Prior knowledge:
Elements lengths: L1 E2 H6 L6 E7 L5 E8 L3 H4 L1 E5 L5 E5 L11 E7 L2 E5 L3 H10 L4 H4 L15 E6 L3 E9 L7 E9 L5 E6 L1 E3 L4 E3 L4 E4 L5 H11 L5 E7 L8 E4 L6
Parallel strand pairs: 1-14
Antiparallel strand pairs: 2-3, 2-11, 3-15, 4-5, 5-6, 6-7, 7-8, 8-9, 9-10, 11-14, 12-13, 15-16
Amino acid sequence: MNQLKEALRGNRYPGRGVLWCRTADGASLGAYFLTGRSPASKARTLRHTPEGELIVAPTQACDHDHLRHYVAARQSGDLVVFGNGEQVSTVADRLGSGAPPASALDGLDYEPDPPIFTPRLTVIADGSRAWFGAARRSGGGRSATNRLTLQVGDLEPGEGVLMTTYHSNGHEIATGAPFLEVGIDADGPRNLLDELWESLPPQLRIAAAVFPPGGLARSDIRQAAAAPV
């Protein structure tokens, strides 16, 4: 098992990522982060809405881009849902209609952004368990979606599960590994945010957030630069 720092520092372009973990002091926490290369990707911010959602929004007035601007985390009863696209709202709505987590994650598709076809990553979590969903394009010649659902329970302090959209050696970019089990050095949300932020490529950082289940309003958020309101 690699430490979180090692896993991220060995990835020259992680894209977007989701993490569910227990910190060294035993706290269960979720995290979401954004990295980007283009000016349009970098012109984004993570912020709360009056409804208590965590959204990825543009830093200045522009047309809505459904691949770049979306609800990144939403509460659904005792469950928090977070991920890298519009599917977060879809999954939260399904949970609100009574669907169990595995069913709520079913039927999702990867993003229509050739040539890489970015995976859609989604996490549903409560205080003790998490369900990860990844909708990925086939690595072969098929255009069909491969859907991975992973239930994670009984993490020990200092353990976590990480998914990233991409993996890069600095020259080539591919879709990320289905999932990585990682070690967590930090204790508490603020230190976890520090550990996560310091592990991301500095020139690609956009934003990151750490939150407890049921506590989106208490998210710790870090931005690469002050963003216009």
